[in-house]
Amino acid sequence: MAADTHARQIAGLDALELAPARRAGLLTRAWAGTWPVALAVALVLAAWQLVVLAGWWPEYVFAGPVTTLTELGHRLGEAEFYQALTVTMRRAVVGFALAIAVGLVVGALVSRIRPLRRAVGSLITGLQTMPSIAWFPLAILLFGLSESAILFVVVLGAAPSVANGLITGVDYTPPILLRAGHMLGFRRLTLYRHVILPASLPSFLAGLKQGWAFAWRSLMAGELLVIIANRPSLGEQLHFARELADSPGLLATMIVILVIGILVDRLFGLADNALRRRWGLHQVTA
Amino acid sequence: MTAPLTEQAGGRTDGQQPAVRLQAVSKTYGQGKASLLALDNVALDVAPGEFVCLLGASGCGKSTLLSLVAGLDAPSAGRIDVDRRRIALMFQEPALFPWLTVSANVEMALRAKGLGKRERRDRAAEYLEIVHLGGFGRKRPHELSGGMRQRVSLARALAQDADVLLMDEPFGALDAMTRDLLHDELERIWRERDLAVLFVTHNVREAVRLGDRVVLLSSRPGRVVEDFPVTLPRPRRTDSAEVAEQAGEITQRLRQEVMRHGAAPNRVPREAAPDAR
Ligand SMILES: Nc1ncnc2c1ncn2[C@@H]1O[C@H](COP(=O)(O)OP(=O)(O)OP(=O)(O)O)[C@@H](O)[C@H]1O
Ligand SMILES: [Mg+2]
């Protein structure tokens, strides 16, 4: 049999084996992602309005959706809001970035070094369950009412999740891939770099997502407690809204905090989806 | 490879050092009552440039034997002589890295050798061409069919440019036509490179089609039952009468071996493994 016939036969068989690529259009996908969100928002607003209508609290204590959203719209037009947003987001980004760095280093060391693993493995999980607000008295004692106090707690809140994500990923690297890497000549550090680390990416991403949630919570707790003069922030707005009994303002700020949390979470969701599609994992979960 | 030659081991050694030599190799999994003697006192030689097919019922220890030779696992007893730097193993499953493209998967075999990026890519393309997947380098493993993945895995094993190639049921997932074509391809590469191949299969005809020798393993524990030389002239065809005839002979022997287990339930772990040392 001529080599050429070979090639053509095999090419024919391969074409038969491959399923044609099918993926919904952009619009369809955007719509599929949007309508459940819209529905959820509508449901929440309706429930909120019902509670207000029930009249358990006077309107000036618990503002309705219309008042609150008007107040929110009003705030979105003011420079002050953006100053607060900038301060808060800068803290979030710096704190989270530090947490990732710390989590990576700790996770890498703990997953590599066995005695260290035994020593601090469960400590990391323990730290994760510790409510971040419980750190603040110590943080304030150590750093005073300062940025450092807030960052300290944000990092402590998020780093254990990041580290744990990495450690879990390393632990659950499929043995067959380790064996394949070994056969290809990778050992110790090169095996770690070329096989183990990439294999733990999905788990690491899950750790990042959880870490973000912890970082955001710790940050809000911190901003409520550690108020620095002339440094407006979302948490601080929350604090003063309560002091001034400004119910619409308070609820409007809460909405902003919630929306930011959800948006960032969605970003991680997108990254996770992209990863799953690249790895071919989406077929399993779909 | 320092072992003195002993006449007890079978195989065509021609006074050369064998490429692979197993002497009285045993492997026990687990301990105490739950232990399982997977391989018992196996002796096997593969000469350089020799194609040896390993045949046996499912669960008889074929994959175990390959892992031991590859150095992924240590034998419980006995010794194995092989140059571990010059050995490639194609696993029973494709074992591709899902985060890499097909081409990058093949390139992984060249990375440990310290080749530059450009050269890696070109060499990977060549090997993909050999398994007729030239146009698929940029795909991801999950986008290919099972058989195609297995071919990528073959390309990756070949790219290691080893002297000894261990293959664990490499073509089990392929349709008959592709399998025939890859048999030809493998035979060509084996000839060109003077490889020593240890090829595991369930398929007796495949074994006769490819092997210089067909080594039959028994089950529970795995032992070498018989060593059939195959002297049919190459190239052979899987559907030829000569191959069918010799395959029939070996199948007969395999059947006897399986029937030995007929009375006893097959999957019961052995109580305390008999001492094989
Ligand atoms: N890691 C392990 N731990 C315990 N038992 C094992 C392990 N690996 C294999 N075994 C047992 O050893 C025996 C031989 O397994 P092996 O995978 O080598 O069989 P095989 O001949 O390759 O089978 P198949 O043809 O189905 O691939 C089996 O009974 C299996 O259950
Ligand atoms: Mg097997």
UniProtKB/TrEMBL annotation, chain A:
InterPro entries: MetI-like (IPR000515), MetI-like_sf (IPR035906). It comes from the Bacteria. The keyword Glycoprotein does not apply. Pfam families: BPD_transp_1. SUPFAM superfamilies: MetI-like. It is a multi-pass membrane protein. Residues 85-268 form the ABC transmembrane type-1 domain. Keywords: Cell membrane, Membrane, Transmembrane, Transmembrane helix, Transport. The chain crosses the membrane at residues 32-57, 92-111, 249-268. It is found in: Cell membrane. Belongs to the binding-protein-dependent transport system permease family. This is NitT/TauT family transport system permease protein.
TrEMBL record, chain B:
GO terms for molecular function: ATP binding. Residues 20-244 form the ABC transporter domain. PANTHER family: ALIPHATIC SULFONATES IMPORT ATP-BINDING PROTEIN SSUB, TAURINE IMPORT ATP-BINDING PROTEIN-RELATED. It comes from the Bacteria. InterPro entries: AAA+_ATPase, ABC_transporter-like_ATP-bd, ABC_transporter-like_CS, ABC_transporter_ATP-bind, P-loop_NTPase. It holds the Pfam family ABC_tran. It comes from Nonomuraea roseoviolacea subsp. carminata. Keywords: ATP-binding, Nucleotide-binding, Plasmid, Transport. This is NitT/TauT family transport system ATP-binding protein.
